[in-house]
Amino acid sequence: MGAPLQAAAPASLLRAQALTKRFGTTLALDALDLEIAAGEFFALLGGSGSGKSTLLRIIAGFEAPDAGRLLLDGHDIVAMPPWARPVNMMFQSYALFPHMSVADNIAYGLRRARVSRAEAASRVAAALTMVGLEGFGARRPHQLSGGQKQRVALARSLVMRPRLLLLDEPLGALDAGLRERTGFELRALQRATGAAFVMVTHDQEEALALADRVAVLDAGRVAQVGTPRAIYERPASRFVARFLGAANVLEGRAAPGRFDSPEAGACFAGDIPDGTAAVALRPERIRVAPGATGMNTAAGVVEEVAFRGDDSLLLVRLAGGATLRVAHAEEDGAPPARGAPVSLAWEADAIVALPA
Amino acid sequence: MTHARPGATMTHARHGATRTHARHGATTTRGRFVRIAMLAGFAFLWLPIGLLVAYAFSADRIPFQWGGFSLRWFAALAANERLVEAALRSLRIAAGAATLAVALGGVAGWALARFGPFRGRAAFGALIGAPLVLPEVVTGLSLLLLFVALEGLTGWPAGRGATTVLLAHATLGAAFVAVVVQARLAETDRSLEEAAMDLGATPLAAFRTITLPLVAPALAAGWLLAFTLSLDDVVIASFVSGPAGTTLPMELFSMLRRGLTPEVNALGAVVVLGVGAVLAVVALLLRPR
Question: CB of A223 within 8 A of CB of A212?
Answer without folding.
Answer: no
